[in-house]
Amino acid sequence: MARKKIQARVFRMSRPADDVAILQLRFPASIRAKFKAGQYLRIRTPDGDERSFSMANAPQESDGVQLHIRHVPGGAFSEKVLASLRLDDKLEVEVPFGDFHLREDDQARYVFVATGTGFAPLKSILDDMIRRRLNREVRFYWGGRSRADLYLAETCEKWEKRYPWFTFIPVLSEPDANWRGRRGLVHAAVLEDLPDLSDRHVYACGNPMMIEAARNEFQARGGVRRDRFYADAFVPSGSSDTNQPQLLQSAG
Questions:
Q1: Same domain, 19 and 55
Q2: Are strands 244-250 and 166-172 parallel, antiparallel or unpaired?
Q3: 20 to 30 Å CA-CA from 153: which of 121, 143, 181, 194?
Q4: 68 pairs with which residues across the strands?
Q5: For residue 66, which phi and psi values (nearest 5 degrees)?
Q6: What are phi and psi of 244, to 5 degrees?
Q7: d(C-alpha 38, C-alpha 233), whole Å
Q8: Which positions of the chain have pLDDT values less than 70?
Q9: Domain of 214?
Q10: Coil, helix or strand for 116?
């Protein structure tokens, strides 16, 4: 898929959580960007650096992109660039990059696992599945310390009510006393529910430590096939933000 460099315009900004921003960029009217759900783009900052962020919108919305950006104290992008952005400001983006995308299989049963803004590429995949009516079984486990970390939980709850094939399991490691949901580590919750993963396709995004633990334990204890485990880790780049997608393992 050919890459394009585009002068994108800041169309909308919102904060679903204190430390998460959703940035909507629009492309010029004559430009469309093709990408696969789950891929990422690169933004060139005014000082010439590049930052990578997964696209959170479906590929059908090719006139722009939605990005989920976590604020990190001292983060090169979130503090130096994002904080100063205003509507209609321009950002140079290059799209698409990455091998993290859905491998379609008529018989596939999917397990999606995310922490934090690792939800972004999985949201893109889920939006795409909904638009194309790919009614495959998906169990989505989203982990965080507190409820605030699951910044679009309401979207997932609406999907669960509307689509019989989709199940949403939020998991908190440090919940408050009012939390009535699952507790603990998100990858452990998967194995509690699904001790046999041999017939599942697993897609994991977010914290690299979670991904490494999930990969090791899902294979050793759950029997997931190596060629059915796909991962995209969000890792720091120097003093930058932790939204940087980096492919740790892409099977197949």
A1: yes
A2: unpaired
A3: 194
A4: 22
A5: -115, 130
A6: -75, 110
A7: 12
A8: 1, 234-252
A9: 109-250
A10: helix
